[in-house]
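Human: Here is a favour to ask of a fellow structure person. Comparing notes only helps if you start from a blank page. Give me a protein, with the fold worked out from its sequence. Please set it down just below, with no commentary around it:

Assistant:
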Amino acid sequence: PAGMAYKDMNHEQRKYFMEHEVLPAMRTDFAAFDPKYQTMNCNTCHGEGSHDGTFKMPNPTLPVLPGTPEAFMAWVAKDPDAAKMATFMSETVTPKMAAMLGMTAFDPATGSGDFSCDKCHTLK
């Protein structure tokens, strides 16, 4: 699917794109953040969806995130590990994934953008 927009790809093209473009890029970034992600695979983000072929997102087996900006900020303020992960996700993962998918990363300052935490994580 070289040169195609993700939204225009069929299921097989998306699967190929994810396996050959997204996964290697994300594995590199996640492993640099924490070496435990050196073995990152489709299941890491898609859970059972990688086994049944649906790849449905958001994935409820990923950490459930607070559903409001206030609750999210309170959560990261009291949990240093959550704060570290949130910084990595907002500064590295979200913009890179958005770009690869042909979307705009959410900007909390303006409230604009179509790719944010809720594309992968469920919210409470």
Remarks:
- The mean pLDDT is 95.
